[in-house]
Design a protein that fits this description.
Elements: E1 5-9, H1 19-28, E2 35-39, H2 45-52, E3 57-61, H3 78-83, E4 88-91, H4 94-100, H5 104-116, E5 120-125, H6 129-133, H7 137-148, E6 158-162, H8 176-194, H9 196-201, E7 203-207, H10 212-219, E8 226-229, H11 236-247
Parallel strand pairs: 1-2, 1-8, 2-3, 3-4, 4-5, 5-6, 6-7, 7-8
Helix pairs in contact: 1-2, 1-11, 5-7, 7-8, 10-11
This protein binds glyceraldehyde-3-phosphate.
Catalytic activity: L-erythrulose 1-phosphate = D-erythrulose 4-phosphate; D-glyceraldehyde 3-phosphate = dihydroxyacetone phosphate
Main location: cytoplasm
Keywords: Cytoplasm, Gluconeogenesis, Glycolysis, Isomerase
């Protein structure tokens, strides 16, 4: 049985004041029936880890380098994230793919590095609107899944987030049938690559304009094990009801 996961991606948002939101979230979900992960910007990682210490909220990074150390100005290694208090890292987010030209092989190498450090790799995949309109959604999802998920993936170290690029921050959400189609496909692809036992242990998150008003119906969809939430994870008042909906799903 997969434990549900509510993951919040603060993206390039938040300063020290924002830790009050994290504290409020931790306070109101003392013993949750789902895992909770907040991924603040790197500048807040250590302070977020301090704020969340002893609570049910885990802290994650938003990217890492594939190498352990070296001449990579501006980058952070998986070991550095772990040292700062992270237990997970988001990899291959479509904003990283678009803004930094990240490709599947590079994301796969980052995931290997993260897993090697004992972090949970939250690997993101998803089609653009043009790809969906061309009928290529499953082809893109399959290619990104195969290319960016390493051979070492297992339920204990890997989470897949399906995030249609056109649904991120737009208020547009795929139909529940469209979400189910992709999630069922991803589960089948994982099964054929890793076998049923491993595939059934890997959590599949949906991401893209999840909010309190649509969370419950999305969490009822086949093979949706939680959500990767952007905008609605910034305020405890928005993220908390999403977590509650997941706990009750
Ligand atoms: O990582 C989170 C996703 O990009 C979703 O962002 P959003 O909830 O603001 O649409």
């Amino acid at each position: 049985m997969r434990r549900k996961l509510a993951a919040g991606n603060w993206k390039m948002n938040g300063t020290g004041d924002s830790l009050a939101e994290l504290a409020a979230l931790a306070e109101s979900h003392g013993a949750p029936a789902a895992d909770i992960l907040i991924c603040p910007p790197a500048t807040l990682l250590s302070r977020a880890a301090d704020t969340a210490r002893g609570s049910a909220v885990a802290i994650g990074g938003q990217d890492c380098h594939a190498n352990a150390s070296g001449a990579h100005t501006g980058d952070l290694s998986a070991a550095m994230l772990k040292d700062a208090g992270a237990s997970a890292v988001i990899l291959g987010h479509s904003e990283r793919r678009a803004d930094h030209g990240e490709r599947d092989a590079q994301i796969c190498a980052k995931a290997e590095a993260a897993i090697g450090e004992g972090l949970t790799a939250v690997i993101c995949i998803g089609e653009t609107l043009a790809e969906r309109e061309a009928g290529d959604t499953l082809k893109v999802a399959g290619t990104q899944l195969a290319g960016s998920v390493p051979a070492s993936a297992a339920g204990a170290n890997t989470v897949i987030a399906y995030e249609p690029v056109w649904a991120i921050g737009t208020g547009k959400v795929p139909t529940l049938e469209q979400i189910a189609e992709v999630h069922d496909f991803l589960r089948a692809e994982l099964t054929s690559r890793f076998g049923a036992e491993t595939a059934d242990s890997i959590r599949l998150l949906y991401g893209g304009s999840v909010k309190p008003s649509n969370a419950a119906e999305i969490f009822a969809v086949s093979n949706v094990d939680g959500a990767l939430v952007g905008g609605a994870s910034l305020k405890a008042a928005d993220f908390s009801p999403i977590i509650s909906a997941l706990e009750n799903s």
